[in-house]
């Protein structure tokens, strides 16, 4: 059981890439209960070792590791009095803290290892080590400098769990190799058994992905079960007890057989796989329905059981193979296309194609055997209502062929016209109760400041009644608790808040409130609130890339684009990635003056670094992890900027202040220069308002972009969701010729006629007629999952045309004229076609009511398209069959 939200997707998705930074954290734990980050770090490392005792865990990552440093800060007054500076102190400490091998001795046939103990054994030993002064006097280090083990400076990553400082652990499960729900329970039980060992610290569960796995799989499992029950009831009501039970019995047989083959092939049961089963649910009985109906038809006409079974298999082996093959051909592009989106959804075509293949062999081999044992010839009875309806449809098509075709073309044109008002999206946001609030501060902002402002906003959010928990990450983007979260490491000017609400419906109100209050509460930052997205990761739904070599031109173009996007209805949280740059205090060295005193640029640079950041002189190896030893001034980065030029540097004539050699000036330099396709680039980004899709905004924005007067040398292009959708569609359409070729092969193999193949292919546009109105009435956008629905729909409606035309061809071979053959085919196939349509629709209805945002668009696309195309197939295909087969019209037979 892989993650239902695809944290462990099958195939080479980003989460499966061997780059460990891309692995999703199935469980994220946080250690809290102390304000000392080093205490939390030590215990987190111990907990990490304890967690590795659980079999099957792939890795455990430290989250918000504060880092360590052994800081030696020299007291300025003592240094001046003793003549000890950073360089001389570093030389003496390095000489006493080296790892040296003392060799071995041979004693009584054994080796005796010599350990000279050339490293300090404790911090106390380091503090007490004698340091030689300028006069040759030896004094303990602690009289010259302060020595302490502290978190790394400047701060890199910091994390707060519901307001408490914490260090986290992200547990990664092996993709596609374990039951995520079962392993999650083992992790939870193991953590519970360890809690007392870590008291008074608390082990908290920040994110627990197996819960979402279980919830999503349970939801889809319920949809599958409900679908099976409804399909079985429809079969019993519409086909009668014997025929209904016979067809319904194949539901569990085919389902479990397909799952068994899927497991044997190394498949993993995840959200996409189960969705594929639900899609195939209604279709897997299609072959059985046609076979049972045909078998019963022959029994009703006096055939013996053996003879009826043999004839039914002979008649339907080819048509059902062609029908199944055309459906497989329809799903082939999804199976063969490449890219992140294709990998994301590949489980659907795999399960659908596998299930339908199994259903074909069951219909051909098992159904006739069971049918001949169960079915009985039915007594003469009045023509069923469904067959009378089929005869009426045949008469309409026979009597008004031009009107039928004209109405069909009008419906198709009307549907295409309606499509311009259909909302388009790529992948919808999730239905999770988790909200991301990203805070981008100006470049140069320190992690401490980002954390302070983020915690202030988090405190306000925590006071809301609908908020269950609030987690803050500063300096990085936090744990990768969702599969498509882009990782943002080592960014002091970035902070992220994750808000967990009582219900997903509460998120919209929080987002609206944040957009009102953030400019007032945190005016220094760009605050962007958004739900978790699905599909391939993107920077934002709306992204406009800006290319240009000149920084000034990029800035001017970005300002104009920002104004255009802000003025576009539906665009929210408009920002750019160009940045303001990092303030820089430049020291311009007078080389001539420095040379007079024998001072080099390297000495001046090293002095500035020693005072502010410090100098790493050695490595402290007393603990499990090596820690850098750093010599620095007590002030460090808090050293007054105006006092830097007053620092003195030793020369042959004595100590000389730095201001003798240099002058200072303030400047700005870019924090980062982005390139895309080897061109300098920046981006203008925007979110979308609630109920608005990226395509709605772009439709309004494009006229503004076309009218922009951009500086010379600047080019723009649309990226974001539009680019990913284009890439996904391109990948799908690049594999489409293979599916079309397979479709032609199956149709020509079945009919050996280009005209008949053309008639069947007419059903493809018929399938689209109902999709657009259906999505609009259901309030669903047209996205990638809706496109999946259209692919499935094509396979279904093509099947209906195949079985209808096949019967007509059989009747013509028996000597009937074309009108009589078509009329008989419509009467005979109306019931199986309507049954297969009904079973497919009721099998998909549970998907329309799921909490997941992925499946309703797909389900409604299939349902609405199938309703329209089925009715039109029974009308249009007979009309086209008469016209294209080129036979003269004759009077309609009496009584038909």
Structural class: alpha+beta
- Measured distance between first and last alpha carbons: 55 Å
Query: What value does the average pLDDT take?
Result: 83
Shape: elongated
Q: How much β-strand is present in the residues?
A: 15-25%
Beta-strand segment tally = 26
Largest sheet: 9 strands, antiparallel
What's the helix count?
28
Helix fraction bin: 40-55%
Task: Give start-end ranges of low-pLDDT stretches.
Answer: 1-22, 887-896
> From the alpha-carbon coordinates, what is the Rg to the nearest angstrom?
36 Å
Which features would summarize this protein structure in a list?
about 900 residues; 9-stranded antiparallel sheet; 5-stranded antiparallel sheet; 28 helices; elongated; disordered N terminus
Describe the protein's topology.
Layout lengths: L26 E6 L4 H15 L7 E5 L5 E6 L1 H7 L3 H10 L8 E4 L2 E4 L9 H6 L1 E3 L5 E3 H4 E6 L7 E4 L2 E9 L7 H15 L7 E7 H31 L1 H8 L1 H15 L6 H14 L1 H15 L4 H32 L3 H6 L1 H28 L10 H15 L1 H18 L15 E7 L6 H16 L4 E8 L19 E8 L5 H15 L4 E6 L10 E6 L3 H16 L4 E6 L5 E8 L1 H6 L4 H12 L2 E6 L6 E6 L15 E4 L2 E4 L4 E8 L5 E2 L2 E10 L5 H13 L8 E5 H32 L2 H8 L1 H16 L5 H30 L4 H31 L6 H31 L11
Parallel strand pairs: 3-20
Antiparallel strand pairs: 1-10, 1-11, 2-10, 3-8, 4-5, 6-7, 9-10, 9-13, 12-14, 12-15, 13-14, 16-25, 16-26, 17-25, 18-23, 19-20, 21-22, 24-25
Helix pairs in contact: 6-7, 7-8, 7-10, 7-27, 8-14, 9-14, 10-14, 10-27, 11-12, 11-14, 11-27, 12-14, 12-23, 12-26, 15-27, 15-28, 16-25, 16-28, 23-24, 24-26, 24-28, 25-26, 25-28, 26-27, 26-28, 27-28
Mind explaining what this structure looks like?
With 896 residues, this protein is of the alpha+beta class. Helices cover 52% and strands 17% of the residues. The protein has 28 helices and 26 strands. Strands 1, 2, 9, 10, 11, 12, 13, 14 and 15 form a 9-stranded antiparallel sheet that branches. Strands 16, 17, 24, 25 and 26 form a 5-stranded antiparallel sheet that branches. Helix 16 crosses helix 25 (763-778) and helix 24 (754-761) packs antiparallel against helix 28. The two termini are 55 Å apart. Mean pLDDT is 83; it is low at 1-22 and 887-896.
